[in-house]
Amino acid sequence: MKQVNQVKLGAKFIADTPHRVSHDRCLWAARMRRDSVAQRIPEWEEMRSLASQIKMHTLSHLDSYLEMFEEKLKANGIHVHWALDAEGHNRIVLDIFQSHGVKVVTKGKSMLMDECDMRPFLAKHGIEVYEADLGERIQQLDDQRPSHIVMPAIHKLRGDVAKLFAEKLGSDPDIDDPSYLNSVMRKDMRQHYIHADAGMCGVNFGIAETGGIVVCTNEGNADISANVPPLFVASMGIEKLIPTQSDLALFIRLLSRSALGLDITQYTSHYHGPRKGQEMHLIIVDNGRTARLGSEYWQVLKCIRCGACMNTCPVFRRTSGLSYDAPYMGPIGIVLEPSYNLDRYARLPYSCTHCGSCGDVCPAKVPIPDLVFYWRDVVVKQGKDQLSHRIEEDGMELVLRSATNLSHAEKLGLWALRNLPQGLLNSSLNPWAKAHTNPEPPKETFRQYYARKYNGNTKK
Amino acid sequence: MKVGFFVPCYVDMLAPQAAISSFELLKRFDLDVEYIEQAACCGLPLTDMGYDHKACVLENNLTKWLSGYDYIVIPSGICTDQIRNHLVAVEQTPEVRHIRETTHDIVDFLHDVLQVKSLPWAKFPHKVALHNGCHSLRSLRQARPTELMIPDYSKPAALLELVDGLEVAYATRRDECCGFGGVFSIWDESCSSQQGLDKVSDYERNGLKYVTSADFSCLMHQQCIARKNGVDIKTYYIAEILNGDAV
Description:
Helix content of chain A: 40-55%
Largest sheet of chain B: 4 strands, parallel
Strand order of the largest sheet of chain B: 2-1-3-4
Structural class of chain A: alpha/beta
Radius of gyration of chain B: 17 Å
Structural class of chain B: alpha/beta
Oligomer: heterodimer
Shape of chain B: globular
Number of strands of chain B: 8
Helix content of chain B: 40-55%
Shape of chain A: globular
Strand order of the largest sheet of chain A: 1-10-7-4-2-3
Order of helices and strands of chain B: EHHEHHEHHEHEHHEHHEHEH
Radius of gyration of chain A: 26 Å
Distance between the termini of chain A: 59 Å
Strand content of chain A: 5-15%
């Protein structure tokens, strides 16, 4: 299977200055807002520790909490389904829709449904799904994945949206005024909202104690999907469970502050059963999660999908989410995607400078920087590393294992820096020289300085 | 106090001045400092690439040479981080654990162990941008990363403030990664250099001409990018300033 080459895809975005600059600025602004709202909460770091502990507690007692959850859901009149994998999830959705004669669906944001590739599957069976989240709908119209988990079209400029709407919805391509573009979308989507046979959305938190689900959005896209049609289907990964309603308060305080630097999302909707005359289903999905739970990288399951790691990642901000060519992108993506498909995503863990910022912004303390090392190790041990890395590694190991070997290599390196013609040093054989000058070769190494000044006497 | 001075590979070859200033600075204090001539590399490039498990020979050699000291001091934040936190291919004997616990970057050693309160020989009457390398900042915790909502502190800034005439300043995005990342700068040259260019442009917008750091690798990356792009900055390894060698 062809490996996704994030470096190559990212380089294209980097070269597109207007898009790169806007993307970087928007996301850095989100990170700055996050810093300023978090700073106003004296117990912020305690909250992060507590969130991490609650998640670890829930994950290590997941079996009993899931059973409690199921029982309460049923008592609340919610139909419960269990899906082992993406295929099982999609099949359950299709069965529900076919038995209700559903043709048109409106859907709030759900990373899980993207992970399951649900939309194309339903389309094949003649069911049309309309995304109710503006950014997600823009991406759907453009036939692209979301480029960020909470800001799906953040890599686009207003002009791109104007052009896209003109092409797909017949609006004026020269007007990129946001209120005009919003009105175009509103007019288009209203007909679908009114005629939808069913609504869908993802889940931010499932509460074991009460048997309810909570969905946080800024546009009410979950609410319109849940509240208008006669049939409502939600999907959640098993790791989204928290024990109690009071635990929820902590996570709600952390989520939007981390994601966008807002005190709270515009809508925090609690669903504890169907409306009168409505039918409500919840599909609880594993899709690889229990395998992660039993592994060394189980802490990845603490993720609450806020996107703070993406906003702070210096690589993500300059290369955009599409360059990861995966449902999950950025720091959490590079440690999550290899567990779905190591062949395809073996290169992703290398798209990281090891700056560590993602680990420090994460509201649930997912140790992303450690997991990056973990995955590089796995990639190598499974033999999925690149040949060029293997050659570099062999050479380096030999040179670096002793001072004698190193000093020979140093002499060679410095000789080259001093004596090779600039044309060769700056040629395409040296990727460093594309954007850097070569370092100035010093007159002597420390080793030589020491021998000269201290006469080889190692004592002071 | 017996102190072993370890000069990592890239510092020896490309930044001997960083090691010279650090060594001479250490010798100003009443210490038994010994340069560990045999030690070559901390093994970071191997860990970085995922070949941690193949670093056995290297780490065995290294720990043999680093043994027998009260402290090991290294003029490089990233290499210190490697030894403290990633020296795991080798068996974790009490000796190895001692090495990992007592290895310090020069900044940590001056600030935490020697608790230096004055540097009468050091003078640098300029505004200097302090760049905290990511490993020094977020692994060694030499300063508060802006992500963390804890009381503010900065060990390198505290030391620099002892230098006569020096004013510590920062880039607007004060602790955003400059993109060096070791082998990352070769694997992902386009992203690495864009990050570096953004960093040096940040200094330029703020009128900052002098840049210092406890990580020479970041400085080398920034200096070479600045030179290529005509941005006028001059970089100094932190010990060059603290020892009064920067002019």
